[in-house]
Design goal:
Length: about 300
């Protein structure tokens, strides 16, 4: 089985070069995230980046409507945005948020895991691994401003950040709910959750596929702060000040010290993890469970 299509190769094949903000904001000079004037937003079709180089950070807005599901193209664009900011010395931090009202992310794109061939599953999983590794180990400070419901792979993305602010809306539940779909959170999803909330809470949350509403997410430590909905971004910005005041090299090395052992577990068995995923997701029973779940999502509308 052809396992590897590197994310960079993938990038070349899927993406147009950096484009100025498509859609409504195209060609406009928008106020930068921190309020600076004259700094252009940039991005790709599904990721809008509002840079504030003077303040040293950028707001990265996910906009893959309707639910910010993490398709292969979207994962690739998120990675490119991250890489671009990481390679620019003006940026020390990112605030990750959503441009889709009421939804942070519905997690991995079920259409990428349903009815496709093993080569596609392998390519997709490699991109999911890459996204986690790059966000989890980024030398930038990454704060998520969670302004909507946030399931499974979307929750993993938020858990990979250094700090999480969640909007106080009881509809905005968040968690690793894989078991509700009849699937299993991979070990590195599990490790990331354990590192955040501790073993006992993770054990219960993972088995039951719990999605925590804001007050509970705060109580178990899945998020660091819950604020009124209209203050999520400003709270993330305020928090950033504390992180940016720390000498960068000391903070980065400490982050690496804390996170590298977890990332190394995946790095050591990356191909085996892809093969496990492909074998697992290709099983008839799993495909059936995913189809049933997708059908339920569609039926709830009728
Ligand atoms: C032993 C070895 C083990 C190895 C590892 C093995 C396996 C690991 C495998 C996979 C891990 C996966 C992790 C995941 O992330 S799975 C995804 C989990 N996500 C969810 O459960 C969320 C599902 N979505 C929802 O609950 C709702 O959509 C949501 C609350 C987010 C929003 O509700 P709303 O009412 O606003 O919108 P909907 O009408 O439900 O949705 C609109 C539209 O979008 C489609 N859709 C929703 N979620 C997804 C998704 N994750 N992927 C693809 N498409 C999605 C939905 O079907 C609607 O489509 P349509 O009807 O408009 O066509």
């Amino acid at each position: 089985m052809a396992l590897a299509v590197g994310i960079r190769g993938l990038t070349r094949s899927l993406l147009r070069p950096w484009v100025r903000v498509p859609g409504p904001a195209r060609g406009r000079t928008e106020p930068a995230a921190g309020g600076g004037d004259g700094v252009r937003c940039f991005g790709s079709p599904r990721v809008l980046v509002e840079p504030d180089p003077a303040a040293g950070f950028a707001v990265m807005k996910m906009r893959n409507p309707p639910v910010n599901s993490l398709s292969l193209e979207f994962l690739t664009e998120l990675l490119i945005s991250l890489e671009k900011l990481e390679s620019d010395k003006a940026f020390h931090a990112i605030i990750l948020t959503s441009d889709c009202p009421g939804i942070f992310s519905a997690g991995l794109d079920l259409m990428e895991m349903c009815g496709r061939d093993p080569t596609h599953y392998a390519e997709y999983w490699k991109a999911v691994q890459e996204l986690w590794l790059r966000f989890y180990l980024s030398h930038l400070v990454v704060i998520s401003a969670i302004n909507g419901v946030n399931a499974a792979g979307g929750c993993l993305l938020a858990l990979s950040c250094d700090y999480r602010v969640l909007a106080d809306n009881p509809k905005y539940a968040m968690g690793l709910n894989e078991t509700l779909l009849g699937i299993i959170a991979p070990f590195w999803f599990k490790d990331t959750l354990v590192n955040t909330v501790g073993h006992r809470t993770a054990e219960r949350a993972l088995q039951l596929g719990l999605l925590f509403p804001p007050a509970e997410a705060l109580q178990v430590g899945m998020v660091d702060k819950v604020v009124p909905e209209d203050q999520v971004l400003s709270a993330a910005r305020s928090e950033l000040a504390q992180w940016l005041a720390i000498p960068g090299h000391a903070r980065q090395l400490t982050k690496s010290l804390m996170r590298k052992p977890t990332a190394d577990r995946l790095l050591k068995e990356r191909d085996a993890d892809i093969q496990n995923f492909v074998r697992f997701i290709s099983r008839d029973a799993i495909q059936k469970a995913l189809r049933v779940y997708l059908e339920k999502l569609k039926q709830k509308k009728t």
